[in-house]
Amino acid sequence: MVVSIFQNVSLGNTSLCYDHPNSCQKLSYPLAFKIVFYLITGNLLVIVSIAHFKQLHTPTNHLILSLAMCDFLLGIFVMPLSTVRSVHGCWYLEDLMCKLHTGMDIMLSTASIFHLMCVSTERFCAVCSPLTYRSRVRSATVLCMVSASWVISTVFAYTMVFSELNFKGAEAFYNSNVRCVGGCHVFFSRGSAVVTSMVSFFIPGLIMFGIYSRIYVVARGQARSIDFLTNQLRTASNRPGEFRYRTRKGTMTLAVVVGVFLICWTPFFLCNIIDPFIDFTIPPSLIDALVWFGYLNSALNPFIYAFLYPWFRKALRIIVSGEVFRRNSCRIQLYS
Asked: What positions does the domain G-protein coupled receptors family 1 profile occupy (predicted)?
């Protein structure tokens, strides 16, 4: 018989969420979890930069804009309630709000990796098929990719939560060992853990790994010819070389973004898919910490852009200095 780590223990000095015999216990976690919420506002600067400056209205940046929106919504609607739940171990809202919160959490995490997969595809076209890139990747193409990322992730997440497919096959265990008054537990049975982890992380992650591996091989093979072409054309015009340089630099930057995403979320999804098969013996505190490590990714992206994208640093200076409010500031050239 499995002794669940979720089982409440009655202690004289135990603090409960509610005055109820089956109430969840209040927990005490370090307040450092809240730091991530304050860092998430960096995504607002990415959104304002790309939306305001016309020079940044490119297919790649439109995908980055939508990705930043995912991270921003995560910080506004998901992380504050997750902070309360992590610090106190209690849920003070109704069950409906718990489902809405859980659904949005899954939706935004899934949408983020779908966006990164779209970015990988766009970069593949830019690097591996530069002559047909403009005909393949248009505004309508990007709009379809962004719409599909949002719609698919929304339908998948809320169908899973509201139909309670995440409990299927483990209802008895959940009701006897996990469910309690004042709790909002993100619980997955064996089947739902496999499906959710594969759809939301592992399959898109493997696709992105394959795409960027191919991009690396192609880019490495093109490097010498690109440098030779740049040297030949430099006396006439610097634009071809600069365009090639920006393409390679943008691809490497987005590869770093994808790599950081995979590093931040891989530990959680590994635990998520393993835990049901080892009778839920992974401590909830560890899983909760891994979730916050995944949330950290949303705060890191703006710093990656600031460190690797000169145009973002220039846009940031314009926004902070207030120059963004000047007339025709949207036409400022952030790169030549």
From this structure: 42-305
**Which residue range is the domain that position 322 belongs to?**
31-331
The one-character DSSP state at 181 is B
Query: The tokens 């899973």 sit on which residue?
Result: 160
In a domain, 18, yes or no: no
11: in domain: no
Whether residue 305 contacts residue 265, with contact meaning beta carbons closer than 8 Å, is answered with no
Sequence length of the chain is 336
User: pLDDT per residue over 10-25, tens digit each?
Assistant: 334 456 777 777 777 6
Residue 183 resides in a domain: yes
Q: How far apart are CA 259 and CA 303, in angstroms?
A: 14
Strand partners, 181: 23
C-alpha distances in Å from residue 70, one per residue of 54, 63, 149, 171, 298: 22, 11, 11, 32, 8
Write down the pTM of the prediction: 0.80
Do the domain assignments include residue 225? yes
- Into how many domains does the chain fold? 1
**Beta bridge mates, 16:** 25
The CATH number assigned to the domain holding 314 equals 1.20.1070.10
pLDDT at 182 over 50: yes
Q: Which residues pair with 288 in a beta bridge?
A: none
